[in-house]
Amino acid sequence: MVRNTQFIDLPHWDDDTGSLVAIEAEGTIPFGVQRVYYIFETTPGAHRGFHSHRDLAQLLICVHGSIDIIIDDGCTREQVTLDTPTKGLYIGPYVWREMLNFSDGSVLVVLANHHYDPADYIRDYDQFMQEAPAFFASAGQDGGAR
Ligand code: TYD
Q1: Looking at the whole model, is its pTM more than 0.90?
Q2: Strand pairing partners for 45?
Q3: What span, in angstroms and rounded, lies between the C-alpha atoms of 49 and 21?
Q4: Which ligand 1 atom lies nearest to the CA of residue 118?
Q5: Less packed terminus of the chain by CB within 10 Å, N or C?
Q6: Is 115 a catalytic residue?
Q7: Residue nearest (by alpha carbon) to ligand 1 atom 14
Q8: How far does residue 117's CA lie from ligand 1's centre (Å)?
Q9: Which of 63, 61, 52 is nearest to 80 (CA)?
Q10: Alpha helices (H) in the chain, listed in sequence order
Q11: Which is it for strands 67-72 and 77-82: parallel, antiparallel or unpaired?
């Protein structure tokens, strides 16, 4: 079980004309949204991410196709699959993530609780392994279990 990660089932409304997902900040997801970005038209074999954040919380949704996500809290590493627009993966602080196995035409939408801040990134895995234990040892940082 990777700490600070959680699958969130997104409420959806389906009828014979199609489906609609609605996400409410601080309702469906446990944070306010200040930024939205998406990753698309990835090249074959693309492997992205390779970082953690010190503070940022995000929700990843594969709105088309399928994408594998490696999540790693410094103790446990798992590979999970996002393959439906009705499921989000919450990733909180101090979770190393990598994205791979992008299916052709896949689109990954990310909601984030802060604006872009390069200083919040940890892009070096050794640095991540130095900082993560202290973060998770501090009170209340054991994260949400999936
Ligand atoms: P990066 O976070 O490295 O992407 P990934 O984790 O998918 O490999 O971001 C790629 C580039 O986009 C990098 O130059 C920074 C820029 N960027 C922004 O300017 N704003 C953003 O909100 C994000 C997520 C990235």
Answers
A1: yes
A2: none
A3: 26
A4: 15
A5: N
A6: no
A7: 118
A8: 10
A9: 61
A10: 125-137
A11: antiparallel
In this structure, what token pair is assigned to residue 31?
């944070």
For residue 140, the model assigns a pLDDT of 67
Please tell me if the CB atom of residue 62 comes closer than 6 angstroms to any atom of ligand 1. Answer: no
Do 21 and 30 form a contact (C-beta atoms < 8 A)? no
CB 69 near ligand 1, within 6 Å: no
Residues in the chain, pLDDT under 50: 144-146
Q: If you take atom 19 of ligand 1, which residue's CA is the nearest one?
A: 116
Q: What is the DSSP string of 20-53?
A: EE---BTTTBSS---EEEEE-SPPTT--EEEEEE
Determine if residue 133 is left, alpha or beta; phi over 0 gives left, psi from -120 to 50 gives alpha, anything else beta. alpha
CA-wise closest residue to 92 among 119, 53, 61 = 53
112: its two tokens = 């984030």
CB of 116 within 6 A of ligand 1: the answer is yes
For residue 146, the model assigns a pLDDT of 43
Is the distance from CB of 70 to CB of 100 less than 8 angstroms?
yes
